[in-house]
Every structure is written in structure tokens, then in C-alpha cells.
Automatic annotation (TrEMBL):
UniProtKB keywords: Hydrolase
UniProt keyword Cytoplasm, yes or no: no
Residue positions of the active site: K128 (charge relay system), S203 (charge relay system), S227 (acyl-ester intermediate)
A GO molecular-function descriptor: hydrolase activity
PANTHER family xrefs: ACETAMIDASE, AMIDASE-RELATED-RELATED
Signal peptide span: none
Record's keyword annotation contains Transcription: no
Protein name stated in the entry: Amidase signature domain-containing protein
InterPro entries: Amidase_dom, AS_sf
Stated family: Belongs to the amidase family.
Binding site for substrate: L177, S203, V224, A225, G226, S227
Segments forming domain Amidase: 64-557
């Protein structure tokens, strides 16, 4: 629509998107600018289970839901700039055409299909702007996608709509998705709900901010390298990345379509663990394999790990071998480990096969084209975020120059030297060899996990809490490694909010940046640690990551309950906004 040979196409696309969004926000503010009434406050506090039952009984009106969440969505937008496209008008039209009250239990499908009783009736949902919704742009933060509404909704959206959910907004994403922070020329910068000076992570950053502010009950995000867990950790919410085949993915877009070696997955973010379990279960109850050919026909499998006296074994991964956890993140992980021990569980250190080498394989698979596909999605004058740009620049350096540089710095920094050696465009045989290596690491993890008899692995989602705006380049894409690792393994992984940064407890040691500890760090780590400042980060959320094996979504959700219970028993449970 916008892209002739004109050099101003990028600016025109950005201006169009800005004006389109502002017009919808201005119109909505006339209806949703007031504070929530007392009845709306009560409605807003309802968990998914009670919201759905209230809608089915007729005690809750869909228009009351839209009124309450419309107000909270606009409030979230004012506080964080998390909305990519407001869809309250669409939501109002959709609820007008749906049966509410007892009639909602009738089956809208042909008689040969299982009866579905709209298990998400009335649940307000926001959706990451990389997931197709018919009649709307799916920008992925890219200008060339502006003004190109898609014709058909993605499989997950069709399922949610059939289940009775109300889609109220699309949420902001960074340009081309791969980023440490959520920022683009299309939407601007999204700020952390706990601090306007700090970011929200990426790439489901807008969704994490939306959920943290209560603008939606559930965010539907996507995850290729931690994109639902990373922002959840930054914003103090819950999230879950399942394994390939559990939730629908058809109709999810990215700037690197077709990279099957590192697939994109769909996953939810919520403010509570109860809602996280409910959304995951109710989507599975909708038989997603009938919506998306990629889904495996595995129904919900109840798991109970909270029986009295049940002792679980947890393996703690303290570092990825690249960037060790900051004091705040290490404290969060330690507090969870200690709380579990106090409840009688076995907690051990888990040192899996060489993580940094495995991550090298993963980054080569993700950027095996040396970033050509991402660059091809950009129009003149459009740029990606500094962290991604720096990574792409490194890949693009002449191989001979990188080899010489790697040889020069290997003795002092083997991690950076290895990256210089391996990050270049891959031939087909080279890519196939990398997939073989990936699978060898998967086998090694599987065997060691079984040998040690683990129920779960515990680690951090990222080595730092939310970083300040503009510091993504220093933090680098490598901060996602703790999360990316489990995409490579295709393990189920979730983010659990645990605590908040304490400027006294979590400060770096005095003279840290002149210490032998800092001097021994690799180049990536040294630069990354300059973003950590417990004083400015005081009060920001900090989470941990819980990991199960492939297709263990039910078990991981149950493991989250065990963690939550242990923290409550110790009196240190996280309190969100």
C-alpha cells in the first residue's frame, strides 16, 4: 500500500500507523476514560474460571467486561505505550453476535464433533502483533506490513473466538521481533509498568506490560528465544512456553519465517498462576489439533505433585557459561531453591552438557543466512534495534577478518573468539551438520536428566532485571540465552515472578568493575554487566524459570504451584501491581 520507489515510504507508513492508532485511542477515550466503578473493580478481579461461569449464568454482561477492560487497556496504554492496535469496536460487535447466558453452552459445531461449551466465554484477550487477525495488519514491527490487513485469522485466534474469548487489542513488538527491548518507529517505546525509565523485554513486551497493568486477562504471545518468558520476568507476570505441537502456530508471523530448526511457538502470559493454568487447559480442551495441523492430539492430562509428603528433585542451573546471573537474579533463584528445600524437596546443582557450545549451535541455526532474511524485510531508512544490528554487523564482517580477530583474542576470551569463528552464512551441508549437533545435545540432555532423576530444572529467564531504555546494545542478545536454551531443547519452560530488586541486598560489590572477578569475564559479559544498577532497578520484578521435558506442560504448571506454595509458606510470595 505504501511502498513505491519513494524514499519517504518508511516515514509515510509510520505516520499512517501513528494516526490510525491515535484516532482509535481518541475515540475510545470518550467511552472508557473514567475510573472503574465498584462493580467493575470486582469484575476485573475475577479469575478466568469465575468470569466464564458468570458469563454462562448470565450474571455478567459482555458489555460490562468490555467497559471494565476497555478502561484498564487505555490506562495501560497511557502508562506503558503497550497497544499496537485497539480492537474495542471489533470486540463490541463480536459480543453482540454471540449467545450469552445459558445458551452459550449449546454446541455451535456439527454433531459429529465433541461438544464445546465456550470454555473462554467473556475472557478479554490481547494478542501480540505478529499473530494474524482477519481484517487487521500483522506488522511484526515492520513498515512494509503496514496497510496490509490479513484475510484470515491464525489458528489460535479462530480457536479463541470459537471458545468465546474477546480480543480487545494487539500489543506492541520491536522491529523484526529479535530484541532486548520493545521499541519500533511504528509504535514507539514500551515502558515497564514498574518504572518508566526501564524496558519490558522482548518480543512479547507490549503484552507483558498490558497484562501486568491489568489491561487484559491473557496475552497471547509467541516465543522463539524466550519471547514470552523474558518479558514476563521483566514485568512480574506468569508465562509458559510449551513444546512444539501443543498450541496452534499456523498464522503466526515473524521476520524469519521457515526456520524450522528453531521454531516459533505460541504461549500465554497472565497475572496469576491460576489464570495461566486455566488458559492453557481450556485451549487444550478446545482440541487445537482440529484447528492446526501442527498440533498433536494430546488432551489435557491432570497432574498432582502436591500430595502430602511428595518429594520432588530439582536441578539448579546457576549459569549459562556466558553471562552469570546478576545479584538480584541469583538471589531470586537462591530463595526459590531454599524455599523448596524447607518444604522437604531435594534441590541439587545441575551441570548439563556444555551450554555455551550448545548456544553457539543455536545462534548459528537462527542466523544461518547471516541475517539476510531480516534485512530483506526492511524498507529504506528502516533500522532494527541496536542489539540486533550489532549482531548482524558481526555476522557480516569478512570471514578472514573475523578469523584473524578470533585468533588474536582466543587466549583471553574463547567465548567471543568462537562466536567470531562460527557466525557466518551457512551452506546447506553446514546447516544440516548443525542440526545433527543440536540433536546430539538434545540426546545428551535427555540422558543426563534421566540419570540424575530430575523432576524439574530451575534457572533464571535472563541474567538481569529490566534494563533502562537505550541499553539493549550493552545488554546484547546473549542475555536471552537462558531462555533460548530451552527452545533449542524443545522443553516446556515457564517464568515465575519471585521478588523485586532491593538496592541494598542486590548491589554489586564495591569496586566490582576493577575486581579480578570482572577482569576474568568475557567481553560480552563485561559489556552486559554495565547495564546492572541495583539503585536504579530498585523495585523491578525478578523471576525464575522452571523447566520440564518435552510436552510436560501440565507437569510444569503443577511445578509452578509447588514453587508458589513454598514461597507463600516462607512469607516471601511475589506481590504484583
Amino acid at each position: 500500500m505504501f511502498f513505491s520507489s519513494s524514499s519517504s515510504a518508511f516515514e509515510r507508513a509510520c505516520a499512517f500507523k501513528h494516526e490510525q492508532r491515535q484516532a482509535s485511542l481518541n475515540a475510545a477515550s470518550k467511552l472508557f476514560s473514567s475510573s472503574l466503578t465498584s462493580s467493575e473493580e470486582k469484575l476485573h478481579q475475577l479469575p478466568i474460571s469465575k468470569l466464564v461461569s458468570g458469563c454462562k449464568s448470565g450474571d455478567i454482561s459482555p458489555f460490562d467486561i468490555i467497559s471494565a477492560y476497555g478502561k484498564k487497556t487505555l490506562e495501560a496504554q497511557r502508562c506503558t505505550n503497550c497497544v499496537a492496535e485497539l480492537m474495542l469496536d471489533d470486540a463490541t460487535r463480536s459480543v453482540s453476535s454471540v449467545s450469552w447466558g445459558p445458551a452459550a453452552d449449546s454446541d455451535s459445531y456439527s454433531s459429529d464433533l465433541v461438544v464445546r461449551s465456550k470454555p473462554l466465554l467473556g475472557v478479554p484477550v490481547s494478542v501480540k502483533d505478529c499473530i494474524d487477525i482477519a481484517g487487521h495488519d500483522t506488522t511484526v514491527g515492520l513498515a512494509r506490513r503496514v496497510g496490509q490487513p490479513v484475510e484470515r485469522s491464525s489458528a489460535i485466534i479462530r480457536l479463541l473466538e470459537d471458545a468465546g474469548a474477546i480480543v480487545i487489542a494487539k500489543t506492541t513488538v520491536p522491529t523484526a521481533l529479535f530484541s532486548v527491548d520493545t521499541d519500533s518507529k511504528l509504535f514507539g517505546t514500551t515502558s515497564n509498568p514498574y518504572s518508566p525509565d526501564h524496558g519490558v523485554g522482548a518480543s512479547t513486551g507490549g503484552g507483558a506490560a498490558m497484562v501486568a497493568c491489568g489491561g487484559s486477562k491473557v496475552e497471547i504471545g509467541s516465543d522463539v528465544a524466550g519471547s514470552v518468558r523474558f518479558p514476563a520476568h521483566f514485568c512480574g507476570v506468569w508465562s509458559l512456553k510449551g513444546s512444539v505441537g501443543r498450541w496452534p502456530v499456523t498464522g503466526n508471523q515473524s521476520s524469519m519465517m521457515g526456520v524450522e530448526s528453531v521454531p516459533t511457538l505460541t504461549g500465554p502470559l497472565t497475572r496469576s498462576l491460576e489464570d495461566l493454568e486455566q488458559i492453557y487447559k481450556r485451549v487444550i480442551d478446545m482440541r487445537p489439533w482440529e484447528y492446526d495441523y501442527t498440533c498433536v492430539p494430546i488432551p489435557w492430562r491432570p497432574v498432582n505433585l502436591q500430595e502430602e509428603g511428595r518429594r520432588l528433585k530439582w536441578g539448579v542451573v546457576w549459569t549459562d557459561g556466558v553471562i552469570p546471573p546478576s545479584p538480584a537474579c541469583k538471589r531470586a533463584l537462591s530463595s526459590v531453591a531454599d524455599s523448596l528445600r524447607e518444604q522437604g524437596h531435594e534441590v541439587v546443582d545441575f551441570v548439563p552438557p556444555n551450554i555455551s557450545e550448545f548456544l553457539e549451535v543455536g545462534y548459528q541455526l537462527a542466523f544461518g543466512d547471516s541475517g539476510q532474511q531480516i534485512r530483506s524485510n526492511l524498507v529504506p531508512k528502516e533500522t532494527v534495534n541496536p542489539a540486533l544490528a550489532s549482531f548482524l554487523d558481526l555476522i557480516s564482517l569478512p570471514r578472514l577478518f573475523k578469523k584473524l580477530l578470533a585468533k588474536f583474542c582466543f587466549s583471553k576470551d574463547p567465548i567471543y573468539a568462537n562466536l567470531l569463528n562460527v557466525m557466518h552464512a551457512k551452506t546447506i551441508p553446514e546447516e544440516r551438520a548443525l542440526i545433527v549437533k543440536r540433536d546430539q545435545f538434545r540426546e545428551a540432555w535427555h540422558e543426563q536428566w534421566a540419570k540424575e532423576g530430575l523432576d524439574f530444572v530451575l534457572t533464571i529467564p535472563a541474567p538481569f532485571p529490566a534494563v533502562k531504555h537505550g541499553e539493549g546494545l550493552k545488554a546484547s542478545l546473549m542475555t536471552a540465552s537462558y531462555s533460548f536454551l530451552f527452545n533449542l531443547l524443545d522443553y516446556t519452560a515457564g517464568s515465575v515472578p519471585v521478588t523485586k530488586v532491593d538496592k541494598n541486598l542486590d548491589a554489586l560489590p564495591v569496586n566490582f568493575f576493577t575486581s579480578p572477578e570482572y577482569d576474568a569475564m568475557n567481553v560480552i559479559c563485561k559489556t552486559s554487566y554495565t547495564v546492572y544498577d541495583a539503585e536504579s532497578m530498585h523495585g523491578l520484578p525478578v523471576g525464575v524459570q522452571i523447566v520440564g521435558r518435552r510436552l510436560e506442560e501440565e507437569k510444569v504448571l503443577e511445578g509452578m504451584k509447588v514453587i508458589q506454595s513454598a514461597l507463600i509458606q516462607k512469607g516471601i510470595a511475589f506481590e504484583g501491581k
